[in-house]
User: What shape does this take?
Amino acid sequence: MNNLGKNNKIWACLLHLSFNMWEEFISPHRPFRGFRPNLELSEALWNDAIDLMAKQGVNMVVIDLGDAVKYESHPEIAVNNAWSTTRLKQELKKIRALGIEPVPKLNFSAGHDTWLREYSRMVSTETYYKVCSDLIQEVSTLFDTPSLFHLGMDEESIGHQRYQKHIVIRKNEAWWNDFLFLVEEVEKSGSRAWIWPDYMLWNEPEQFFKHMPKSVVQGNWFYGEELDPGTERVKAYLDLEKHGFDQIPTGSYHDYNTGSIGSTVAFGKKHIDDSRLLGFLQTFWRPTIEENRDRIIGGIELLGKAKQTYYK
Assistant: This one.
């Protein structure tokens, strides 16, 4: 999959077109969460972020689509003023012209799928499978068969949903059946599935290593600034390496953690075999609106610095 050359890696940023991963009931410590019925997007910030990515050597942008596109297969899930599919394709063309590969993200975690509207409460049903299949196929076509397709799948736990009015958690066979269905749909469309594996990897490691296909790219994440191999969530990187999984470690700049992505890059370079270390992902976890400009621009710059350090 990694066709960027022996001495190169994926250097990716996650940019939110949609931020509707949570219900209307907003968590008290993160007031910027919650369902947004209208598309809230600063196009000036979006454009500046994409331009800066190109200047900083970022070669991939993961676009969180959610309900911010009026899909032809399921227009009923779109927010007000959502992008048309024509508008999305124009944007993808512009991004590619800057030397950046756009990659889609639809988060199918039952803890982050508010964007699916009524279908988010239909997991494991035939209706759910049909909708998910339709969306994956349409998005894959819109993105001209991207190399990767991010399925999210993180934080499907009661702890992460404790402020929501409606909690959905799949376990054991129920989770695996839905997950493997999603992976199969991505692979049928010609792309490779990419996930955040924390829910199953951190909580049910025996299940994870027994059932997880090696074809799925693993994006374990740790947002601290010091990566101690003795820390359980950091050790997950080592466990994935031991079992031979391809990885794209994830850092962030969502708080005052300026050292997260740099430390993640250094740790990955040291502990993950070059053939399985596909690259790195930087996240911001803020909607793409002007009040978050410093956070998003700063996070891109931090990834650019981490990239420079990697190749020294």
